[in-house]
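explain this.
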Amino acid sequence: MSTTAFILYCMTIFTASIIPGPSMLLALTQGSRFGWAAGAMSALGNVIASLVQGIVALLIVVEIGQLSSTVLWALKIAGAAYIVYMGITLLSLQGFGEPPGEDTAPPAGNLTAHLWNGFAFAIFNPKALTFFAALFPQFVSSEPISTPALATIFLPIAIIAFGCFMLYVTAGKLLMRLLGATQHIGKILGGSIILAGAGLLLT
């Protein structure tokens, strides 16, 4: 991949990653309710899911050539149901009463849950699979891919996905500080996540 193509590739991934969606709404929630540690764990889960989707899409493009509509539909149903469930859960949470302090960290037992939420929000979204399946043929050769080429393909995905997620986590922290201690933040984010889940099902 040439330098120009690599820059364009990274810009395309950044544009797709920074657009608000279910995962970014989760990042806002993590930042406003839990703070940096939980946000970073969810970001890591999001990165793992993005890499899994990228690898699957690359294998499909190279070996099969197209994605199964049945698989995409099943992912869409499962993803929409999970996202709506998480949105409903947020509506009843009472943890938005006080902004998270700089040194506040969630209990260690909860970190795995934050990792899972970041992973699940991303892995159940079939739009990422279709995005990668459309993106890779534009930048990836059909010839056998070397290890350096794989790094060129997947490192930008990991770095950009993590960075964009943490930007939204930061925005969530700032949102809490600007609006102060309020229970309405949870309802706003919960309602937005429910709408995002419904939108995923309808698109």
Notes: The first helix runs from residue 3 to 18. Residues 47 and 158 are 5 Å apart (CA to CA). The radius of gyration is 18 Å.
